[in-house]
Amino acid sequence: MTDADGYDVAAQYAALDQFAKQELGSTLSAPFMTLSFMALLVIPTLKLSDKGLFDGKKFKFSPLQIVK
After folding, report:
1. How many Å apart are CA 3 and CA 58, to the nearest integer?
2. What's residue 65's pLDDT?
């Protein structure tokens, strides 16, 4: 939340969006919107939350597995 002008916020968001695409190499059309949906635990498959990895199909948290 902010009390900043909406146009200023939109310009800053557009700059962050371009940075993610150009400098970080994201090929997503909306990288930050995609990240925001990844936290929704009700969408099936594996999700990342503040409590760890969540398996939406089994509807339980999964232990982190490190792949070497």
Report:
1. 41
2. 57
How far is Cα 49 from Cα 62, in angstroms, rounded to an integer?
Answer: 11
Whether 56 and 45 have beta carbons less than 8 Å apart is answered as yes
Q: How far apart are CA 35 and CA 55, in angstroms?
A: 17
Q: Amino acid letter at 65?
A: Q
Contact 62, 55 (CB under 8 A): yes
Q: Which residue has the tokens 């200023």?
A: 8
Instruction: Write out pLDDT tens, residues 4-35.
Output: 999 999 999 999 999 999 999 999 999 998 88
Per-residue pLDDT, 21: 96
